[in-house]
Design goal:
The complex is a heterodimer.
Chain A lengths: L1 H18 L16 E3 L8 E3 L4 E3 L9 H16 L4 E6 L6 H21 L7 E7 L10 H7 L1 E4 L1
Helix pairs in contact in A: 1-2, 2-3
Chain B lengths: L1 H14 L13 E4 L5 E5 L12 H12 L2 E3 L17 H6 L4 E10 L2 E10 L4 E11 L3 H17 L8 E7 L8 E7 L6 E6 L3 E6 L5 E6 L6 E6 L5 E3 L7 E6 L5 E6 L6 E6 L4 E4 L7 E6 L5 E6 L6 E6 L5 E3 L7 E6 L5 E8 L2 E8 L5 E3 L7 E5 L5 E8 L2 E8 L5 E4 L5 E7 L4
Parallel strand pairs in B: 2-3, 2-4
Antiparallel strand pairs in B: 1-29, 4-5, 5-6, 7-8, 7-30, 8-9, 10-11, 11-12, 12-13, 14-15, 15-16, 16-17, 18-19, 19-20, 20-21, 22-23, 23-24, 24-25, 26-27, 27-28, 28-29
Helix pairs in contact in B: 2-4
The chains are: A alpha+beta, B mainly beta.
């Protein structure tokens, strides 16, 4: 039952991610995550799955996208199976004042944390930190760049 | 005069805070001047040849940057007097000069004594005779002291040419010293690294007496507020709470530090007594409250809050806890700073999606946009209240800009390397 749920969630997440790929920022290459081992009933075949670890947000928003929710459900499942300390780093784009953006980054990291907790992840294992606009994923200006910088990174 | 000598000595002492002098100076480009600047002739001083700093050029740049003066080029001068007996007023009237500055430098032991005079050309009379001295390392201080005296004599406003600033530099590439907290003359010269880190540094600010600074550093992998003593360079970590630790602001009497913390949930304003680190919570709501700045008499704190649906500026009275909304124009007003006379605010204001620096008269509520650039942020007012520094972008790089409070004078201080941002104009020392 668990395996079936996992597969469905993954398919949903994958479908949503590819469905949105035209208007969503492309994952950057350096964001390599630990391979996820999906257990099978036979215990013979091991399949590595890479789940998104960066979640993007609209301007002045801390609302999770459908893609982010689907990926976070997989993370929650993985964390329930093998608990570890997770750091959620919130970021904003360069527009507006820096300390206000620090608060917006924290709101985004908290939104991801709260979603994971609702999915059953132990709140004590989740640390949030906001970097505001101080650590952009991409340098420069314009909506293409800004949309890649409004993000939460799960580490 | 004695007090000015002391100030120069103090400035030289402060420069010794960091031994690392880097080639990261900013350079000034003037974008727009005052409509009707007063022509002034600054004649090269006798005995100033062959020194490591060009005194005449520094005074000329200072006075030009103020917007009140239009210096006459050296090459146009018909005579080069260095003493009262050599001044021929006709030579300066012909050039249209309203004011004339002459002087002599005399070495004495390991110091230079500069005696200078300011003339009103139209009235044909001396209006200022003064003397300043400093060491060979303090030649820029000497030049700025002359600029300050000339500016104040002519405008009646205290000069800011000898003042200092902090700013943050980001070299934009991961390295052990990517983020730097810089200390420099307000013209960008003599920039020094106070702190370098692989992790972000932000929100530098001065105590009212200029002896301490506060800032936020991520050097522990989380944000924390630090105070640095400028004479000794000693750092003290003031906070290490969960969540935000940001936007420090010294109270006018220097005993308290306002800040934003989110340890209790949402970002709220707190005031810490510096001596014992005791905290007092000032706001308590489900919105973002941040960027506190004290009002002139320390009776209240002005801050940014989105409690009304968009970020706006509020003032809270510290004795009764009553908040009052101060800004109503536009849907984004943030990061307020109060002018030295306490009568106006400067802030980041968004208009048609573009971020500018605006000023608002607190009593009348009248707002005025001061900048024409975009992505403007972090305004910091000069201690004489006549000008502000802010951060903006130029050629895809973070640069510092300056604008007079009447928007008549604008100039940029571009950096040679990386992005520069978050200027904090030092108080008078």
């Amino acid at each position: 039952m668990k395996k079936l749920y996992s597969a469905v969630a993954f398919a949903a997440a994958f479908g949503l991610m590819t469905g949105c790929s035209s208007n969503k920022p492309v994952e950057t290459v350096e964001e390599v995550v630990e391979p996820v081992v999906v257990e099978t009933v036979e215990d013979t075949v091991e399949e590595a799955v890479v789940i998104d670890t960066t979640f993007y947000f609209e301007f002045d928003s801390a609302d999770l996208t459908m893609a982010a929710r689907a990926a976070l459900m997989l993370h929650a499942e993985q964390l329930a199976a093998s608990p570890r300390a997770v750091r959620l780093e919130g970021h904003g784009d360069e527009r507006g004042s820096r300390e206000y953006n620090m608060a917006l980054g924290e709101r985004r990291a908290n939104a991801v944390r709260d979603f994971l907790v609702i999915q059953g992840v132990n709140a004590g294992s989740l640390e949030t930190v906001s970097y505001g606009e101080e650590r952009p994923a991409e340098m420069g200006s314009g909506e293409m760049v800004w949309s890649k910088n409004r993000r939460v990174e799960l580490k | 005069m004695i007090s000015r000598f002391f100030k120069i000595q103090l400035a030289i002492l402060l420069v010794a805070v960091s031994a690392v002098n880097v080639q990261a100076n900013l350079f000034i480009e003037i974008n727009r001047g005052n409509d009707n600047p007063s022509p002034v002739a600054i004649v090269p001083f006798a005995g100033a040849q062959g020194l490591p700093e060009d005194i005449q050029a520094i005074i000329t740049a200072d006075l030009e940057r103020s917007g009140f003066f239009r210096p006459i080029p050296k090459t146009d001068m018909l005579s080069m007097p260095t003493d009262k007996s050599e001044v021929v007023f006709r030579d300066w009237r012909v050039l249209g000069a309203n004011f004339l500055v002459i002087g002599q430098m005399t070495p004495e032991a390991d110091q230079y004594i500069v005696r200078y005079e300011l003339y009103d050309v139209l009235a044909q009379k001396n209006i200022l005779t003064a003397q300043v001295k400093g060491g060979r390392d303090g030649l820029r201080d000497i030049a700025h002291a002359v600029s300050d005296a000339v500016y104040e004599k002519v405008t009646g406003i205290r000069g800011i040419f000898s003042t200092k600033m902090l700013y943050v530099q980001d070299l934009r590439k991961p390295s052990a010293g990517r983020y730097r907290l810089m200390y420099a003359d307000v013209d960008g010269a003599r920039a020094q690294v106070l702190l370098a880190s692989s992790e972000p540094i932000l929100s530098p600010t001065w105590s009212a007496d200029g002896k301490r600074i506060a800032y936020v550093s991520f050097e522990t992998s989380r944000p924390a507020i630090y105070i640095m003593d400028m004479a000794t360079g000693r750092k003290t970590q003031m906070t290490h709470f969960r969540g935000l630790n940001g936007a420090p602001s010294f109270s006018p009497d220097g005993t308290q530090l306002a800040m934003v913390l989110s340890k209790d949930g949402m970002p709220d304003i707190y005031v810490m007594t510096i001596a014992n680190k005791r905290l007092r919570r000032i706001t308590n709501d489900h919105y973002i409250d941040t960027e506190p700045n004290w009002n002139a008499d320390g009776s209240g704190v002005i801050f940014t809050s989105n409690r009304g649906g968009s970020p706006q500026i509020y003032q809270i009275n510290l004795s009764n806890g009553r908040p009052e909304r101060l800004t109503f124009e536009g849907d984004y007003n943030a990061r307020p700073r109060v002018s030295p006379d306490g009568k106006s605010l400067v802030m980041v204001h968004r208009q048609s999606g573009v971020y500018h620096i605006a000023t608002q008269d607190i009593a009348t509520g009248n707002m005025r946009i001061l900048t024409e650039t975009w992505l403007d942020e972090s305004p910091s007012i000069a201690p004489n209240g006549a000008m502000l520094l802010y951060a903006t972008q130029h050629n895809k790089k973070g640069v510092l800009g300056a604008v007079s409070m009447d928007a008549g004078v604008k100039f940029r201080l571009p950096a040679k390397e990386g992005d520069v941002r978050e200027p904090a104009w030092a108080p008078y020392l």
